[in-house]
Design brief:
The chain is mostly beta strands. Helices cover 0% and strands 28% of the residues.
């Protein structure tokens, strides 16, 4: 079981929950940081209004894709009331051990 993730740790695949989901390519230990995003927050002033509905806002900035034609796998996370990952300050972590091939899930209500 690994305690780090890289750009090769996740793939997109068909989800039984909803459309497309994010799946682990190797076992991941509880507490491991999940490197699902490579975007940084953007100032509210520079995000075009038409794109705001695709972003997550925290009052100071928006988190959104830097290139909507090539989005990070993290934008495809599906929702669960019993997730295996959580976020803190735009960083994501495994809240339990995650198996190879398991879908990475978060609780949308905590965003």
């Amino acid at each position: 079981m690994e305690n780090k993730t890289t750009e090769f740790s996740f793939v997109l695949n068909v989800s039984k929950i909803n459309g497309v989901g994010v799946f682990a390519t190797h076992a991941i230990s509880k507490g491991t940081k999940l490197n699902l995003f490579w975007e940084r927050g953007r100032s509210l002033k520079i995000v075009p209004k038409a794109f705001l509905k695709y972003c997550i806002e925290d009052g100071k900035q928006y988190a959104c894709a830097t290139n909507f034609g090539r989005m990070s796998v993290g934008w495809y996370l599906n929702h669960s009331k019993t997730p295996n990952a959580f976020h803190k300050n735009y960083l994501y972590f495994a809240n339990r051990n995650i198996k190879v091939g398991e879908e990475i899930l978060i609780d949308y209500d905590t965003l």
